[in-house]
Write a structure and sequence with these properties.
single chain, 538 residues, globular, six-stranded mixed sheet
């Protein structure tokens, strides 16, 4: 899920919306969530955005969910059991569950969903079904998923179950074009409307199988200005903010009836390089030289980024797994990292034959092509724009010119995922699960066209991924996971800039019961806070 931060572009229309929104303190049981970016789509098989996932996890159910402690809890399956050889997982499904349109939910829907993703290798979910051989449905309440190898990760924790009666008959091409603008799930909330550029509303599903949430509806309100969003929270016009930029967060500390919290995250922001080797790629081919990418990594000072872009609210980045993953994260000693060493960058570029022959400050390749690349960042993501500026300055000091252009988030997403007409971007990732599998799977060859945002393909890395995915011994799996992180780090396909703290804020006088969950109270892969908070008594 693409990581987001808050916006800096003023939208007059949203100022009007904020001014007329009823305060949560008026007795409404609406839970109002302030955020700075919109979903890209309501299609769970094609979305790349955290915003879309935030809404869709309340509309769709999975077989198994994460609770507020990030431990598995029952979802559509009341229980699951691995076979003794680890080659199958049996899920016992709930009886009497219905889709939002009234159609009955059965094991056939689970089989359809898993088969669809596996057969067409759709979305990031495909990486968890690579070894699936079949799905059996002995009866309407039982599903048996069979694999050729034991699975270290339970796919029931990640895959939203889709209604066969709506999705059947669609080809992979059809699904890529399917907006799913009226999503139908079995989840605790039903979709109401999405006023693009303003808000998105879902309402409580009173027929849901679980305990009834206190919030009769959840309204996600879009803000184009971070100060306006903070003021809306202070005024009680929203109840919680998904993310708050560092400088604004600092200003919320000590405000009456507002709690500003800093939570360990499963996120990072990164610089990504276009590594497509397709002859039709419109990226600058000089970025395919690992020496150039590594030199840029050496030139950039991650500590400076954390201090100047994040105001100290984070840690310098390195590998694919953030510190929240604990022992799974590879700890590369500081003196072995490609970081804050422009002298090393200059030496590498000199040795590779990149020299400034005309004295304009920009090195040229041996064929005379200048080391000049396009750099794109999201205009409303203030920390990323600041990081891009610092990166541009660092690159210039080693003879590489970066031409910075900012654009709105969905334009950047469409540019990166739907074209190869770009060179370098600044963006971010949130993990989709509390397991290394998701982050490690982003850059698989099979995820080109899915999560893989840099068109990176390394068969050795893929082999290691398959090994860790089927290694159930934790110590052995951890060794493989560490090897993968080192392998990708050396490739310099990403420059992981930082692991930011999840900075959030909420009102203490409107809703109570918020749990400060690792990864975030909201904007996380658990939905429990939405389901468990209750209104503050008048």
């Amino acid at each position: 899920m693409r990581a987001r931060t808050v916006a800096a572009l003023l939208m007059v229309a949203l100022l009007v919306l904020t001014g007329c929104t009823r305060s949560a303190k008026s007795g409404s049981t609406s839970l109002r969530v302030g955020w700075s970016s919109e979903p890209d789509t309501m299609n769970p098989l094609t979305t790349y955005s955290t915003e879309a996932q935030e809404v869709l996890q309340l509309v769709y159910d999975k077989l198994t969910e994460y609770d507020s402690s990030l431990k598995p809890e029952p979802g559509l399956a009341t229980s699951f059991e691995y076979s003794s050889d680890g080659l199958s997982i049996t899920y016992d499904l709930r009886d009497g569950v219905k889709w939002h349109d009234g159609q009955p939910f059965t094991s056939a829907d689970v089989k359809f969903t898993f088969d669809l993703i596996h057969d067409q290798n759709l979305s990031e979910y495909g990486q968890w079904l690579t070894d699936m051989t079949s799905v059996d449905t002995p009866d309407a309440s039982t599903v048996v998923v069979n694999f050729s190898k034991p699975q270290a990760f339970n796919p029931g924790l990640s895959i939203p179950i889709l209604p066969e009666h709506i999705w059947s008959g669609k080809s992979a091409e059809d699904i890529q074009k399917f907006a799913n603008d009226q999503p139908v799930g079995t989840g605790p909330y039903t979709f109401v409307q999405w006023k693009q550029g303003e808000s998105l509303t879902i309402k409580r599903n009173d027929s849901w199988w679980g305990p009834e949430p206190a919030a009769t509806q959840v309204i996600f309100v879009l803000y184009g200005n971070e100060d306006v969003m903070a003021q809306a929270l202070k005024a009680g016009e929203v109840d919680v903010l998904t993310e708050v930029p560092p400088t604004i967060w600092d200003g919320l500390s000590g405000v009456d009836n507002v709690a500003a919290v800093s939570i360990p995250s499963f996120s990072f922001h990164h610089i990504g390089f276009n590594m497509s080797t397709d002859p039709k790629s419109q990226g600058n081919p000089l970025i395919l030289d690992r020496t150039v990418r590594q030199a840029l990594a050496y030139a950039l000072d991650r500590n400076q980024l954390v201090q100047l872009a994040l105001a100290g609210h984070g840690q310098p980045g390195s590998v694919l797994l953030p510190p929240a993953f604990g022992k799974w994260q590879l700890k590369i000693p500081a003196d072995q990292q490609m970081n804050a060493n422009p002298d090393q960058a200059n030496q590498m570029l000199d040795a590779a034959g990149y020299t400034d022959t005309n004295g304009d400050g920009v090195r040229e390749a041996p064929d005379g092509s200048p080391l000049e690349f396009r750099l794109i960042a999201i205009e409303s993501t203030t920390v990323d724009v600041r990081a891009a500026e610092l990166f541009r300055n660092a690159a210039a000091k080693v003879g590489i010119k970066l031409d910075l252009q900012t654009m709105d988030e969905n334009t950047l997403g469409k540019t990166v995922y739907n074209t190869t007409d770009w060179d370098i971007f600044v963006w971010g990732w949130d993990s989709g699960v509390a397991d290394p599998d998701y982050m490690l799977g982003i850059v698989l060859c099979s995820q080109i066209g899915g999560n893989n945002d840099i068109y990176y393909c390394n068969k050795h890395y893929d082999q290691l991924y398959d090994q860790q995915a089927t290694t159930v011994d934790e110590a052995a799996r951890m060794n493989i996971v560490h090897l993968m992180q080192q392998d990708f780090y050396d490739s310099a396909g990403y420059i992981v800039m930082w692991y930011q703290d999840k900075l959030q804020a909420y009102r203490t006088d409107t809703w109570t019961g918020w749990v400060q969950t690792p990864g975030g109270m909201v904007f996380n892969f658990t939905r429990d806070n939405y389901l468990n908070v209750t209104p503050v008594a008048a």
